[in-house]
Amino acid sequence: MPLGALAHAVKAPDAIDSEAAQAARVLREQLHYHAHCYYTLDAPEVPDAHYDDLFQQLQALEAAHPELVRADSPTQRVGGAPLAQFAPVRHAVPMLSIRTETDTQASGAQNFDTRVRKELGLTPTDNPVAYAAELKFDGLAINLRYEHGTLVQAATRGDGETGEDVTQNCRTIGQIPLRLTGDAPAILEVRGEVYMRRDDFETLNQRQRDKGEKTYINPRNTAAGAVRQLDPAVTAQRPLSFFAYGVGEVAPAAQGEAHFGTHLALLQALASWGFPVAAQTQLALGAAELIAFHQRIGALRDQLPFDIDGVVYKVNDLALQQRLGFVTREPRWAVAHKYPAQEQFTTVVAIDVQVGRTGKLTPVAKLTPVFVGGVTVTNATLHNEDEARRKDVRVGDTVIVRRAGDVIPEVVAVLLEKRLQDAPLFTMPRQCPVCGSAAVREAEEADYRCTGGLFCGAQRKEAILHFAQRRAVEVEGLGDKLVEQLVDGGAVKTLPDLYRLGLTALASLDRMADKSAQNLLAALEQSKQTTLPRFLFGLGIRHVGEATAKALARHFGSLDAIMAASEEHLLQVADVGPIVATSIRTFFDQPHNREVVEQLRACGLVWPEGEPSPQALLPLTGKTFVLTGTLPTLSREDAKALIEAAGGKVAGSVSKKTSYLVAGEEAGSKLDKARELGVAVLDEAGLKEIIDGDS
Ligand code: IVH
Prior knowledge:
Blueprint lengths: L2 H38 L7 H17 L23 E3 L8 E3 L5 H13 L10 E8 L2 E8 L2 E7 L5 E3 L2 H5 L15 E9 L2 H13 L8 H9 L4 H5 L4 E11 L11 H10 L9 E4 H15 L7 E8 L2 H7 L1 E2 L2 E2 L2 E5 L4 E13 L4 E13 L2 E7 L3 H7 L6 E5 L7 E5 L24 E3 L6 E3 L9 H9 L11 H9 L6 H4 L4 H5 L6 H14 L4 H7 L7 H11 L2 H6 L2 H5 L6 H12 L1 H12 L21 E5 L7 H10 L3 E3 L8 E4 L5 H9 L2 E3 L1 H8 L4
Parallel strand pairs: 2-13, 21-22, 21-23, 23-24
Antiparallel strand pairs: 1-6, 3-9, 3-10, 4-5, 4-7, 7-8, 10-13, 11-12, 14-15, 14-17, 15-16, 15-20, 17-18, 19-20
The chain binds 2-(butylsulfanyl)adenosine (IVH).
């Protein structure tokens, strides 16, 4: 065979392959680029759908040509089989730790600078030392190894010499590039911290609470736990982030650390290759600027989207770092300068229940005051009954509280070994601790709520604003600020108080001119002429919105009929289901709520009332029944309940007033009497027919 023909025969399939390979490469590059924009730069250039589309194209291509699948393909971020255990990884360059300056005051920075200057033999007249000032991230240290621009291995720090291979898990982290951009060295190990943002942590915990599952303790443990999952699919579901702060092995040496000159230049190079580097990192000259950095970041700490436990100072000049060298496992050129801890031990002195503006009851642990996350904490939320039970916090317990960012302090764990004997289990009260009304927890809801909306002191402001809004009775000009003043000043406790306000009381309020006081009084007067649906909606009964209020008014015609309606009656209204019916019934069962309604009427609130709609009349309304003998399927009790539910009454003996006698087997004298008086006689089937409205 001529050589040319052979070459041709071999080339043909190659050409096809290279077309697919070419397409896969283009897709991979586009996906890497967009992932970098999205995850690391936080500046996506295309809609998510476009990314998904490219991703699916690549997936399809790889499915058709499995030989094209590469470790650094974006499709390989998720997936991989669970491991039995992590393989050990010996670090090419040991992962050191940093000396920690526990003195959280300015002197911590000063001491470090003094030591560095001494080691370098500098005199007081020499220039200040240049430092790179960074954040100390609170997560898990990771070494990422890239060979020719491709991520080949991710390892934990372990003991500094040997870590664990967590490559599969780290591939699932969007901020970790699978491929480097630009002219990265052939061998590049990048070191940094895998962490979890606080908002991601909160969302994760809220999801756990919603599912009735245990919440995680803090972002650091959660991030570290996620990286060390044997099943990468689990890691993929945890929202993890990454910051780069250094390097390990770099080769060839000419492109190594020394090549960059300074630590800040090195970080800049890392950013250019695709790694997230914290924006707060900066140059600081001498102790004074280190102190300023420590203070500035300390003030900013709460607003950062992630936890830090301090800042890190590093001598910026890499040659000086070399000169300073190491003591045992710690470099002399770096120090971590801490902030006050965000978690502390304390004890629970009581568990109170607070009532929110909308009536939600929240159990709150009262704590022995403790300094945590920069403030003194005396309260920590337990969220709701289930959460309090899951954590099983009891009075007298020693607990860990956490306060980070502007998130409300939380009890994250109980130290069971320190529990006192006979510590009582916490239970939610069935009465509102503010007003004494019934507290109820609806099916499928996590929270208990106070049902005394109109009367409850905790809900005053909300109740008034709701009542006064345009869609309710509409009191023009009665807004947030005014309600705040009226309630805080004690002038208004419940709704009727609004209609008792006088000109002098109003005019004495802050920024209230005579004219505006008069306007408000006029608006209150005007609001008295209302409609039943507006009034009903204005009462703020849970689940009774405008549409339900209208339906109730149309069905029952009058407020009294609604207030008297049983749950069964209420259920006959279109759109009223069991939860709404119970809520309406419970609301009007609270004596305080009824009182407020009566007082409002006494204040002159009026609305046109109508007749009940025909559907509101129950089929047996006004009818009296007498039962006798044994019915084929219904017991006496059942038959009675059935009649009453349909609006009828059941009497013991037959008289002229009896509408029907319901007679079964072995009916006795009552049947004779009915015949004598000409009272209609029904059997069981006949009873059911008239209830169903068939006759
Ligand atoms: S540099 C030779 N920089 O702190 C210095 N570490 O004890 C090596 N950490 O577990 C570390 N933020 O994970 C460095 N900006 C930062 C850091 C940082 C957090 C962690 C690191 C390690 C520990 C060092």
